[in-house]
Specification:
It is a single chain. The chain is built from nine helices and six strands. The protein is of the alpha/beta class. A six-stranded parallel sheet has the order 3-4-2-1-5-6, sandwiched between helices. β3, α5 and β4 form a beta-alpha-beta unit. It starts with a helix and ends with a helix.
Length: 248
């Protein structure tokens, strides 16, 4: 583990990493356990990855915790996930503050169950002054929902005469997104072997490096995070330019 960490170039650590946490249910199924126990085991990975990310200088870590599509899962599993969210936030506040972790959230948060929404807002309020790393939970989140909401907001402003169509550029649009105060991710990780984006940060990951791993989320920890970052650092980020332009 220390060998992997020593290989990471501090100046090239991505400031923002986004992760699609996938495979909790399949991890549990392989072990003959109920799916909800896979989700509970995934909390350990959230804690370990957040601490490791903070340790090496990542400023923002965004985790896809619950998508709008997840409501279609069996009701018992959805209820268990919402209960787990409340328990986890309440149980982690002390450690979040101890480790300098600021909690934020994006998504259609007001549509969450009342207890989940309250626990989330309490966690955000109690950690708002922490500055070491920002942990962003994407809850009841959909990139399509976010883009449509931003479009409606800008249309309403135009209708009120607050802006014209010519005023709408990339900066204007980005300021209407949930992530307006967060830099775009440089690295997107998805666990469990799936190679889809699944409606996550579609606008924001336009230039992110993608990293897919077969490891299920409950087995993803410090070692796996460091491996992903090392893979990122071996890549050449050209942003439409050619290699000679990047290296000169």
């Amino acid at each position: 583990m220390s060998d992997l960490k020593s290989l990471i170039i501090p100046d090239k650590v991505p400031k923002h990493i986004a992760i699609i946490m996938d495979g909790n249910g399949r991890w549990a199924k392989q072990k003959g356990m109920p799916r909800v126990l896979g989700h509970r085991s995934g909390v350990k990975s959230v804690r370990e990855v957040t601490e490791a990310a903070a340790e090496i200088g990542v400023h923002y870590l965004t985790l896809y915790a619950f998508s709008t599509e997840n409501w279609s899962r069996p009701p018992a599993e959805v209820t268990a996930l919402m209960t787990l969210l409340v328990e986890t936030i309440k149980g982690e506040i002390r450690d979040l503050n101890k480790n300098g972790v600021r909690l934020m959230a994006i998504g259609d948060l007001e549509a969450l169950p009342a207890a989940s929404y309250k626990a989330l807002q309490d966690g955000i309020e109690q950690t708002k002054n922490n500055q070491r790393i920002t942990l962003v939970l994407a809850l009841n989140y959909s990139a399509k929902w976010e883009i449509l909401r931003a479009t409606r907001m800008l249309a309403e402003q135009a209708q009120k005469g607050l802006l014209t169509p010519a005023d709408i550029d990339e900066n204007t649009f980005e300021n209407a997104l949930s992530t307006r105060d967060i830099p775009d991710p440089e690295l997107l990780i998805r666990t469990s072997g799936e190679t889809r984006i699944s409606n996550f940060l579609l606008w924001q990951i336009a230039y992110a490096e993608l990293y897919f791993t077969p490891v299920f989320w409950p087995d993803f920890g410090r070692k796996e995070l460091f491996e992903a970052i090392l893979s990122y650092q071996r890549r050449e980020r050209r942003f439409g330019m050619i290699s000679e332009q990047v290296t000169t």
